């Protein structure tokens, strides 16, 4: 009967649900997890988050359901509220504090018994104090999985400078937005590098809201306003594509006249890296939700909930390299997620492979 309701829910909301393989003995086989994805299923980053999490759920014998908020905070909350009124009630809900929406997303879950954990974007310290003071959440809000965005902001700007030959010049930053923790911390890291490096200066920062079309218009203005731009840093790949288009319109060449650095691992940005349109690329944080499922797996099988929250999931991606090939192939079904050491530092979200000797 439980499986019937899972399938009904999947069909009603257009979501994806994965049941465990019959005969598996782990207690996680009966665990139901709802992931509230704030993005679109077909966009590069959030689609990669889904694919890695789906592979993890199948490997861990977890029943995973995904709903998509389509980058609309109100719609995300509405979909979650509708889902929480339906059976079966999820055992765990994975949320993302996208654009500061985390507290509002907790409201429809509060009357239920579901445990909650966040991934990718954490609540603020003040928000946590308020929530932990609420008896309904004192023991239900569990430590999440968050990539070190400040660190990758710094390292990606540093790598961009090196890729441009460490030639003195001006930086411009196209950041994501002013409210999402990942955006704030990436921008802070990149700014920190620029402030420490005497050979470069920051001409301007703007906010492209993670969108190619907005970044395209912004980059056109920036290129016209600042004639000495050598380094153009963007907080994600979509905005980098907008910057590349703006360079082409201005008769400039990415990787020659202006060097572009960015974050994410879409097929398009990997191709741009191989073609030297992208000078510096970092990524890997799409694994955060799948690693949250690894936490749930251990907890469901009687182990203490792993308390660590900050993970160095980002890595610089070079072409050619083994990491480039792994991310390009996206063959996550070959990963044995039950053997990932969630307590390792640094953690390797792409190993061990199935069939590897233990």
Automatic annotation (TrEMBL):
CDD domains: PBP1_ABC_sugar_binding-like. InterPro entries: Peripla_BP_I (IPR028082), SBP_2_dom (IPR025997). Keywords: Signal. It is found in: Cell envelope. Belongs to the bacterial solute-binding protein 2 family. It comes from the Bacteria. It holds the Pfam family Peripla_BP_4. It comes from Vibrio variabilis. This is Autoinducer 2-binding periplasmic protein LuxP. Residues 34-297 form the Periplasmic binding protein domain. The keyword RNA-binding does not apply.
């Amino acid at each position: 009967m439980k499986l019937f309701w899972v399938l009904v829910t999947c069909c009603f909301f257009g979501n994806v649900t994965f049941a465990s393989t019959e005969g598996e003995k782990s207690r996680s086989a009966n665990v139901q997890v709802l992931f509230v994805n704030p993005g679109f299923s077909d966009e590069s980053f959030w689609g990669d988050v889904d694919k890695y999490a789906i592979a993890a759920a199948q490997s861990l014998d977890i029943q995973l359901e995904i709903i998509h908020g389509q980058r609309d905070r109100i719609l995300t909350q509405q979909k979650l509220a509708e889902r929480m009124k339906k059976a079966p009630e999820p055992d765990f809900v994975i949320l993302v504090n996208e654009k500061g929406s985390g507290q509002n997303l907790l409201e429809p879950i509060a009357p239920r018994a579901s445990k909650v954990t966040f991934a990718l974007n954490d609540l603020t310290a003040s928000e946590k104090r308020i929530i932990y003071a609420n008896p309904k959440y004192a023991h239900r809000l569990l430590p999440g999985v968050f990539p070190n965005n400040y660190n990758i902001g710094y390292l990606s700007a540093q790598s961009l400078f090196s890729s441009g030959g460490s030639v003195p010049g001006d930086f411009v930053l196209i950041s994501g937005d002013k409210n999402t923790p990942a955006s704030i911390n990436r921008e802070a890291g990149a700014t920190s590098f620029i402030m420490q490096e005497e050979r470069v200066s920051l001409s301007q920062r703007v906010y492209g809201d993670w969108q190619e079309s907005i970044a395209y218009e912004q980059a056109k203005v920036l290129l016209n306003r600042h004639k000495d731009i050598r380094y153009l840093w963007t907080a994600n790949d979509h905005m980098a594509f907008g910057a590349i288009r703006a360079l082409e319109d201005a008769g400039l060449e990415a990787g020659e006249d202006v060097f572009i650095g960015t974050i994410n691992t879409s097929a398009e940005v990997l191709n741009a890296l191989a073609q030297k349109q992208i000078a510096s690329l970092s990524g890997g944080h799409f694994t955060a939700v799948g690693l949250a499922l690894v936490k749930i797996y251990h907890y469901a099988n009687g182990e203490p909930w792993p308390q660590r929250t900050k993970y160095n999931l980002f890595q610089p991606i070079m072409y050619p390299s083994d990491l480039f090939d792994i991310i390009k192939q996206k063959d996550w079904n070959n990963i044995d997620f039950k053997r990932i050491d969630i307590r390792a530092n640094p953690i390797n979200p792409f190993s061990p492979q199935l069939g590897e000797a233990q």
